[in-house]
């Protein structure tokens, strides 16, 4: 039997596998998309934890020892206006933790599978976890909750997710510790607290082609200079350098960070 199997032309085997993996019963074509995040300070090389130093617009030095954030709800828009959302409000399948510690050749990468074939020109995604997803409870996010907890990106189940975790040192001598952990705590409507989930929408510099025979990638740049030198110029001090949750300072941090993303280029492989 083994000899007979080996005589089947390789191209036939490949075609059968491709047909099975890249189309559904109706014949619609699908393909994978890779997303890549590269964390930088504007004008500098990629961030190296405990090494790269940035000076803010207010002249304050800071250096990260921890840099993590959650992204979710990726929505891709085709040139004809049709949209496809990847596991909307389903963190188990559609949310990811971007951890600078996991960077390989300066990039943190994830795969989005089964994207409908087409020409795409725009992407939208969430920074954090939406209230709609969180309030569904544990049924659709048990796996991601465990992953986020292992990554230190949760408070407690009753409180919610940490959306962005920034830790390090600041000051002229870089000898004062800081930690800013942004995120929603529970039901923000009932609690009367700000909703720190943000949606980011970016046009592609060139179209992205998705098909069963293409393996494109979206290369995001996250400019962490926006942390203190963004929409609102911020200064770390004893009143805010250990903020966690959704304080006024962290609302400003969140609004700044919502502008840090851009698409450097599209890999159409």
Molecular structure report:
The protein has eight helices and 13 strands. By secondary structure, the chain is of the alpha+beta class. It has one domain. Strands 2, 3, 4, 5, 7, 8, 9, 10 and 12 form a nine-stranded mixed beta sheet that branches. The protein is globular and about 55 Å long. 32% of the residues are buried.
In short:
The protein has 269 residues and is α+β, with helices and mostly antiparallel strands.
Short descriptors:
nine-stranded mixed beta sheet; 13 strands; four-stranded mixed beta sheet; alpha+beta; 269 residues; 8 helices; disordered N terminus
Question: What layout of secondary structure does this protein have?
Answer:
Blueprint: H1 2-6, H2 10-22, E1 30-40, E2 53-55, E3 61-78, E4 83-85, H3 91-94, E5 95-99, E6 108-116, E7 118-127, H4 131-134, H5 142-150, E8 164-170, E9 176-182, H6 188-191, E10 198-210, E11 217-223, H7 226-229, E12 244-245, H8 248-257, E13 261-267
Parallel strand pairs: 1-11, 9-12
Antiparallel strand pairs: 1-6, 2-3, 3-4, 3-5, 3-7, 3-8, 7-10, 8-9, 11-13
């Amino acid at each position: 039997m083994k000899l007979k199997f080996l005589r089947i032309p390789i191209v036939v085997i490949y075609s059968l596998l491709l047909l099975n993996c890249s189309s559904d019963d109706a014949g619609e074509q699908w393909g994978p998309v890779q997303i890549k995040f590269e964390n930088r300070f504007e004008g500098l090389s990629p961030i190296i934890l405990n090494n790269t130093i940035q000076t803010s617009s207010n002249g304050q030095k800071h250096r990260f020892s921890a840099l993590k954030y959650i992204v979710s709800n990726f929505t891709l828009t085709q040139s004809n206006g049709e949209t496809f959302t990847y596991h909307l409000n389903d963190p188990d399948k559609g949310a990811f933790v971007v951890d600078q510690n996991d960077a390989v050749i300066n990039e943190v990468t994830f795969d989005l599978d089964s994207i409908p074939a087409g020409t795409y020109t725009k992407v939208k995604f969430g920074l954090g976890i939406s209230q709609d997803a969180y309030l569904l409870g544990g049924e659709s996010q048990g796996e991601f909750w465990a992953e986020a907890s292992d990554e230190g990106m949760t408070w407690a189940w009753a409180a919610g997710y940490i959306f962005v975790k920034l830790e390090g040192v600041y000051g002229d001598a870089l000898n004062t510790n800081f930690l800013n952990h942004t995120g929603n705590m529970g039901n923000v409507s009932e609690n009367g607290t700000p909703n720190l989930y943000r949606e980011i929408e970016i046009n592609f510099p060139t179209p992205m082609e998705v098909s069963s025979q293409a393996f494109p990638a979206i290369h995001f740049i996250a400019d962490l200079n926006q942390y203190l030198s963004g929409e609102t110029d911020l200064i770390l001090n004893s009143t805010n350098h250990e903020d966690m949750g959704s304080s006024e300072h962290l609302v400003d941090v969140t609004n700044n960070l919502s502008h840090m993303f851009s698409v450097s280029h599209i890999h159409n492989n």
